[in-house]
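Is this the right way to post structure tokens for a design question? Let me know if I should format differently. Anyway, here goes:
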């Protein structure tokens, strides 16, 4: 919008409402919840400016009331734009705020200098003394200078990016200019620690699956897992053999003859 009173990007507060009777949610609770929701979409928006917020426009109020009608047990009375006492629009849906809101002052704009009188939500605050001759401000060469008379204090000047304003009573004139900050390099030790942490993290992620896969392959091949333990030897039940010592006897004492008789003998 080209309207000088527009401002960019508002953030909203949302409320999730039930649309079915579930758990301990009853129609009596739905009636109370629907009335409360309709109140803060309509009449409650009258308090928005006092609290430092902007009231909801007609399109958001209508969208909210449409959802309120889905609450079980809610009374559909007083749930429409025609009887919604919202400060931003009329009962017929026209944008009342766009027709009645005051235009901003010429000095109340984005820039190095701002109004000496109140701005924005503090439009009723005055920093000039009664009967003062006003003030003027100018900026040159990256520094700001302000001068004036009839003020409750003395105007001061500081370097670029500082505040130019009153030393006595009153709000300062905000002055500023873009500032460039030098780039900061990353130390070598920090880079080394970052790389080491990345390697350790990669090892923690990749090594366990590799080890598990190798163990599964060895188990499938029949390779025992871990050190081989031999089973204990069972004691033998056979009778022990008796060892007969060999005695070397003289040949004269040995038994002669052969075990097999010679041929012809019976």
């Amino acid at each position: 919008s080209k309207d000088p009173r527009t401002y960019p990007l508002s953030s909203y507060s949302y409320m999730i409402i039930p649309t079915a009777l579930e758990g301990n949610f009853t129609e009596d609770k739905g009636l109370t919840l629907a009335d409360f929701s309709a109140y803060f979409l309509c009449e409650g928006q009258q308090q928005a400016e006092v609290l430092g917020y902007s009231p909801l426009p007609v399109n958001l109020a209508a969208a909210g009331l449409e959802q309120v009608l889905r609450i079980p047990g809610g009374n559909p009375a007083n749930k429409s734009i025609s009887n919604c006492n919202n400060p931003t629009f009329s009962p017929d849906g026209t944008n009342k705020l766009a027709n009645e809101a005051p235009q901003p002052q010429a000095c109340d704009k984005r820039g190095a200098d701002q109004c000496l009188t109140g701005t924005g939500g503090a439009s009723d605050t005055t920093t000039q003394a009664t009967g003062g001759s006003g003030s003027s401000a100018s900026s040159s060469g990256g520094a700001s200078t302000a001068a004036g008379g009839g003020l409750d204090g003395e105007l001061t000047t500081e370097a670029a990016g500082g505040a130019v304003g009153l030393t006595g009573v009153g709000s300062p004139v905000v002055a500023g200019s873009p500032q460039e900050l030098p780039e900061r390099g990353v130390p070598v030790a920090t880079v080394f620690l970052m790389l080491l942490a990345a390697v350790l993290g990669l090892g923690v992620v990749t090594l366990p699956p590799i080890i598990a896969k190798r163990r599964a392959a060895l188990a499938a091949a029949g390779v025992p897992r871990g050190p081989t333990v031999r089973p204990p030897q069972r004691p033998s039940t056979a009778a022990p053999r008796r060892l007969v010592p060999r005695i070397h006897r003289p040949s004269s004492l040995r038994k002669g003859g052969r075990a097999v008789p010679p041929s012809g003998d019976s």
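Format looks fine. Someone answered above. Worth noting: The longest strand covers residues 135-140. The chain has four helices and four strands.
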